[in-house]
Amino acid sequence: MNPRKRLMRRLDKVEDALAGRGGAAERVHEARRQLKKARALLALGRCALGRGRADRAETELVEAGRALSNVRDAEVAARAFAGLKTAPRGPEAALKARRKAAESTLDAASAAAKKRVESARGELGRMGRPRRRALGRAARRALETVVSLGEAALLAPDDEALHDWRKSAKRLDGMLAEADAPTPRLKRLRERLSELGDALGDDHDLVILRGALGRGGGCPPAEAEASRRRALLLEKAAKVAPDLSRLPPRRLAKEFRRSLAGILGVVLALSAAACGTSRGGRIAADEPPLRLAMMPLANKTGDRSLKDAGEALSERISKQLSGNPRIAVVERARLIAAVEELALTEQIDAHTAARVGRLLEADYLVFGALTQLGPRPAISLRIMNVETREIVGSPLIDTSGAPDFERASGAAAQDLILTIKRHGAARTTAL
């Protein structure tokens, strides 16, 4: 897994969360959580993207989260008030009504957030080659930022300073979460960052509640209890702060670089992937094969005698592809399970194909139909790069009227391989 692919999958999860079946609060919470992880990944790999693109992508992700903030704030205020023990229940009805009103705007907020996510996706598609030292430097700077913002917040603990401290801690924790083999020291640091993030997060929830109460005319008993709780949370954060400065930033950079050993093999090939070459145009034998999912082909010929031909053709093409050691064809049982899980009842199109591909963790997904080419049937295919959602090829194979389609399925398999090779993925250059 490489940073660019991880970023794209985080953005996929943002969109999946917004399109999910849960309540508004749960969907928004999950979408914002994935956005924060995406921003941490972006901060880690921005050296491979360039300042301009990285800044534009960061702005789009920030705005995506901001589009959902109204729903989030209304939910947080209602939940924080419910957690107060001594406050009167008077404002509770108003807070619940505000939450309900905010939830009614979720569709519009989700559409705005998705638009921002797609814009960020366009910028991130050009991420280049991260250097190992640059990854370590990014983590080192993130730790230095956490420590410096913590010192400033503890000296002058206003709302903005505490919130900035929390965001920096979450950012560093998100970076360290990408380590495949974290050292004990990194694990301990993540535990402290989690404690700090929880304390400052609860504090920020109370800040949001105070603002909501103020807009409703105020509630002094609730505000007093919230202030007492904030003082306790600040004490907790202050106890964690010294632990964060015990690990020298340069030591963190060194250990973080080593902890990335499990993913650097692919990470360092990222730039080569963009131009279609890797190790002199060849692939290492131990690199994993490309995962390809072949969907059943629809029958659009109008010929009832070919009712089951599309499914039989997809099976034959899959069999041809499975003979190539550099391609791993997703099993038919998994395809069926994915279609059932997503409750797909219509024919596969580009949108549903992307959802199926992500669920199957495929690199490429092939879908299409058996159609008519003059007097003869033909195989029309579309090849999607699941990561970028780009249609990288649309081959049309003439069946030459052969009733068993044997030759056509072989030609289709070859066209698929050649199309993927031309697309320039580094791992396919040895296909």
Describe the structure concisely for a colleague:
By secondary structure, this protein is an alpha/beta fold. It contains 17 helices and 7 strands.
Walk me through this protein's architecture.
With 431 residues, the protein is of the alpha/beta class. The protein has two domains: 3-270, CHAD domain, CATH 1.40.20; 277-428, Rossmann fold. The chain is 64% helix and 9% strand. It contains 17 helices and seven strands. Strands 1, 2, 3, 4, 5, 6 and 7 form a seven-stranded mixed β-sheet that branches. A hairpin with a 2-residue loop joins strand 4 and strand 5 (376-385). The radius of gyration is 26 Å and the shape is globular. Mean pLDDT is 81; it is low at 262-286 and 425-431.
Low-confidence stretches: 262-286, 425-431
> What is the C-alpha radius of gyration, as a whole number of Å?
26 Å
Silhouette: globular
Mean pLDDT: 81
The CATH topology of the largest domain comes to CHAD domain
- How many DSSP E strands? 7
CATH class of the largest domain: Mainly Alpha
- Domain count: 2
Return the string of H and E elements: HHHHHHHHHHHHHEEHEHHEEEEH
The CATH architecture of the largest domain is: Alpha solenoid
Coarse structural class: alpha/beta
Per CATH, the superfamily of the largest domain is: CHAD domain
Span of the ends, CA to CA: 20 Å
